[in-house]
C-alpha cells in the first residue's frame, strides 16, 4: 500500500520516480553542503535537479543532500569573462544570463534541465557543444582529503558524457567557473540540424539569442525541455549514450545494418578515428518506435524521441528498467551493439 506520509524522492526527480531516502537535508550554501556531506550517512546521494538519476522504488537508505545553493559571480579576465556559478543554480538560468549579456560559449546548451553544479559530472553536451569546452575551474569538496579545492579542467578528465566525477562520490561540486567570450555571434555551429534551423551552413555563426531560441524550439519538439503537463518530458533525457565504435566495430555494424535495414546507420566521426552511432537510430530500427510500451505498465518510449524513456505518470522504476532492458537486449540481438545507460542508477541496476 502507498504510504502518503513519506517523502519520496519521486518529488525530486524529473522521472517522478524513486522511493524514500533514509534522510533528506537541503543545503543552501557551500559551507552547509560541506557540513551536511561530512555528517551524512552512507550511501550518500548528492541530488540537485534530479534530471539524470533513476532511483529505486525502495529509495535509498542513506542521506540525500539536496543542493539549493544559488548565486552567479561575473569577473573580467583580459578578453574573456569568468562566470562563477553556485552548484544548485538551475543551469538554464546561466545560459539565459550569458546570452542576455552577450557572452558566447554555452548557447547551444540552452534548455538542458538540472543544475550548474551537475554540468561537469557527465560533461553535458548538446547540439555540438560540450561544457568541458568552457569550464575554467571546478570548486569541489574532496571527501577523501576532507578539504575544499579548485580543480583545473585537465584534472577533471572530461570525455564524452563522462568525467572524473561520474560514478565517484569522492568529490562534491560546490561551484563551477565558466570562461565565456564577449561576442554578438555564437561559436561556429557544428550541428547540422541546428545550422539548418538557423538557415545557415555548418560552421556558420549566428546571433546568440537566435541560437538559443532555435535550440529551445528544436528541443521542445523532441520533449527535451521540461514541461509539467507533458509526460513525454518525465524522463532523464537520453536514456542511453550513443555507442562509440572503432573502425572494425563500425564496419561490422554497417554490414549488419545493410542486411537488416538496407541503409547505413546514422553516425558521426568521433575522436581517434572512432565513430559515434546514433542510439536513437539503433533503437528505432531494432523495432522500438516512439510510444513503444512493451506492455510495461505506466512507462513508454517518449512519443517525441526514441532515446527518452518516460514515466506516463503511473510507472515504477521496476517497469522503467524492464523497458530499458528489453530495448538494450533488442538492440544487442539485432545489431550486436551494446547500449549503456546515461543516467546514474541509484539502488537499482540495468
Ligand atoms: C528532458 C531532459 C533533457 C536532457 N537533455 C540533456 C542534454 O541535452 N545533454 C545532457 O548532457 N544531458 C541532458 N539531460 C540530463 C541532465 O539534465 C543533465 O545530466 C544534468 O546536468 C543533470 O543535472 P541535475 O542537477 O539534474 O543532476 P542530478 O540528476 O541531481 O544528479 C545527477 C548525478 O550527478 C550527481 N551530482 C549532481 N550534482 C552534483 C554536485 N554538485 N556534486 C557532485 N555530484 C553531483 C548526482 O549525485 C548524480 O549522480 C537531460 C535530462 C532531461 C530530463
Task: Describe the protein.
There is one protein chain. It contains seven helices and 18 strands. By secondary structure, the chain is α+β, with helices and mostly antiparallel strands. It starts with 20 loop residues before the first strand and ends with a strand. The protein binds flavin-adenine dinucleotide. Flavin-adenine dinucleotide binds at residues 14, 45-53, 67, 87, 112-115, 117-119, 121-122, 124-126, 165, 172-173, 224, 226, 233, 235-237, 344.
List the helices and strands and how they pair.
Layout: E1 21-27, H1 30-39, E2 45-47, E3 53-55, E4 60-67, E5 72-77, E6 80-86, H2 91-100, E7 103-104, E8 125-126, E9 129-130, E10 135-142, E11 147-151, E12 171-182, H3 192-197, H4 208-221, E13 244-245, H5 247-261, E14 267-269, E15 275-277, H6 279-285, E16 299-301, E17 309-311, H7 317-335, E18 344-346
Parallel strand pairs: 1-4, 2-4, 3-18
Antiparallel strand pairs: 5-6, 6-12, 7-12, 8-9, 10-11, 10-12, 13-15, 14-15, 16-17
The structure holds flavin-adenine dinucleotide.
Shape: globular
Number of helices: 7
Which oligomeric state applies? single chain
Using the CA coordinates, give the radius of gyration: 20 Å
Which ligands does the model contain, each kind named once?
flavin-adenine dinucleotide
Main pleated sheet: 6 strands, antiparallel
Average predicted confidence as pLDDT: 95
Total count of strands: 18
Q: What percentage of amino acids are in beta strands?
A: 15-25%
The span between the termini is: 25 Å
Helix content: 10-25%
Structural class: alpha+beta
Order of helices and strands: EHEEEEEHEEEEEEHHEHEEHEEHE
Low-confidence stretches: 1-5
